[in-house]
Amino acid sequence: MSNRTMDEAARVFADPKAYADDVRLHEALTHLRANNPVAWVDNRPYRPFWAITKHADIMAIERANELFISEPRPLLATAAADDLAKEQLAAGTGLRTLIHMDDPHHRKIRAIGSDWFRPKAMRDLKVRVDELAKRYVDKMRDIGPECDFVTDIAVHFPLYVIMSLLGLPEDDYGRMHKLTQEMFGGDDDEYKRDGGSLEDQLAVLLDFFAYFSKLTASRREHPTDDLASAIANGLIDGEPLSDVDTVSYYVIVASAGHDTTKDAISGGLLALIENPAELERLQRDPGLMGTAVEEMVRWTTPVKEFMRTATEDTTVRGVDIAKGESVYLAYVSGNRDEEVFTDPFRFDVSRDPNKHVAFGYGIHFCLGAALARMEMNSLFTELLSRLESIELAGTPELQATTFVGGLKHLPIRYSLK
Ligand code: HEM
């Protein structure tokens, strides 16, 4: 069976503004899970795709990583942006990150950075991350009693952590933050570069390229003890990584490594403010921090989607998918699936089990998941142990996006010990 009639609800996937409107988004996703869980979406300027909204189907597709591969369409972009990306790659200045790749190449490239994110590395980093968490909560106290939690705190803490892991100088943090915002924020008027045209997006990519090409050259000449050196000097089958692979590795670590975590931290704090009984529970019992962090990640789902493309004719939930057609994995929907989560629209700091798909699943499972969890754990442990009161001081504002995003502004009033 293959129903290619467009369900109006499925238009949310091809509309960046839908992600800035939680109510509209979840109404549409709830409808699709119940009535059209493998929905055809044909909405210009995007090429058509199948939207997958059930948790079990998202996991099954990610598990079948030979039947559903990341090339050539790992994420939703307009047809023109997809074409430009291909041209850039052919010209040697495009991006081919881990999320664009399939095994066996993917596995080899992933292995170059993976030691830096293993539990042992995380344990070694914990003291430093705790120190930074304290520094940012001190900053919050100093600038209080009001702040914009996103722009004053949530952006800076994970940016600082990932930049120091990479070994980049502090003077460059601001630049990396702006480039990341422009890359993920191409659909948002406040974030996009200039007019947000394809040329403007290309200029962002070229800036990343120029910055990281210099970094590669310098780390190859003078290796240091940081992740940037590990990437620059990594070998695949005895050969150094190509320029595209090196720059792409930096770009994914630098960008995925902080924007996503900022979204989970700020959305997590908003959920606590909107659910004061949960905030109080967590303050009374800090032993719940592990499950609370997991619930914040499920609740916010900062990465909205990834895509896969079928290598053979196949079916998902009885719907025919032809070889070469793409499926859109709607993580936001999977994380509210009534068949998996009891009372999915309740924010529950003790939720257990919590098998969310916010970090994906399978061979592409988020490389930095343990780091993100540790950062959130440190920040919320420090913050909640010192927090005496907190309330909204204005209206929270969500980013328009189809890919990565969360709160742009979270005005709060608070008192801290
Ligand atoms: C709350 C924060 C984060 C969320 C929600 C998140 C989410 C994701 C998701 C959904 C994927 C794709 C998984 C898949 O296709 O199955 C991914 C991949 C990835 N993430 Fe994260 N991430 C977060 C933090 C981080 C951090 C801190 C880093 C640090 C470097 C990071 C680095 C990566 C990398 C390198 C990949 C590609 C892995 C691969 O393709 O093999 N992420 N992340």
From TrEMBL:
Q: Reply yes or no: does the keyword Metal-binding apply.
A: yes
Please, which domain of life does this record's source organism belong to? Answer: Bacteria
Q: Could you tell me the keywords of this UniProt record?
A: Heme, Iron, Metal-binding, Monooxygenase, Oxidoreductase
Xref: InterPro entries? Cyt_P450, Cyt_P450_B, Cyt_P450_CS, Cyt_P450_sf
Is Oxidoreductase among the key words of this record? yes
Per its UniProt record, what PROSITE patterns does this chain match? Answer: CYTOCHROME_P450
A Pfam family annotated for this UniProt entry: p450
Q: Which residues form a coiled coil?
A: none
Q: Which cofactor does it need?
A: heme
Q: Which family does it belong to?
A: Belongs to the cytochrome P450 family.
The record's annotation in PANTHER family points to:
BIOTIN BIOSYNTHESIS CYTOCHROME P450, P450, PUTATIVE (EUROFUNG)-RELATED
Q: What is this protein called?
A: Cytochrome P450
Q: Which organism is it from?
A: Mycolicibacterium arenosum
